[in-house]
Design goal:
Largest sheet: 5 strands, mixed
Number of helices: 1
CATH topology: Immunoglobulin-like
Shape: globular
Radius of gyration: 18 Å
Structural class: mainly beta
CATH class: Mainly Beta
Number of domains: 1
Helix content: 10-25%
């Protein structure tokens, strides 16, 4: 019985360590009408995006979509990539954890009317 409990505990420990993948942070800064980072390349995995508002003059946000999708249609937005609270001047806010698979994505801010920039996941 002790052997069975030991094996069961070992399997549970492996399962938890596999699920507790490292969450990486990507910091992005917005100035009036643009992000200062024009293109990002990351590896496949889980991320939190920290979005900073560097005196834009209005609240800002963050939208992430798979490349080729219509950005104006909210159903194409990756909802977990929205900031949890709009970002006021001089502040930084974060998204929830976003799991990214290999591919190309676009990011932008509709409140700050930025262009769409490219995020590549390798």
């Amino acid at each position: 019985m002790k052997k069975l409990i030991t094996i069961f505990s070992f399997v549970i420990a492996i399962a938890f360590s596999t699920q507790a993948q490292e969450v990486k942070t990507v910091s992005l800064e917005q100035t009036k009408g643009e992000f200062t980072q024009k293109e990002i390349t990351v590896s496949e995995g889980s991320y939190v995006f920290n979005i900073s508002n560097n005196n834009v003059g209005t609240d800002v946000g963050f939208v992430l979509i798979p490349e080729g999708k219509d950005a104006s249609d909210a159903k194409n937005h990756i909802k977990s990539a929205y900031v949890t609270k709009v970002v006021a001047d001089g502040k930084t806010e974060s998204t929830n954890t976003v799991t990214l698979k290999k591919g190309t994505y676009k990011y932008f801010c509709p409140l700050n009317k930025t262009p769409q920039y490219t995020l590549t996941v390798k």
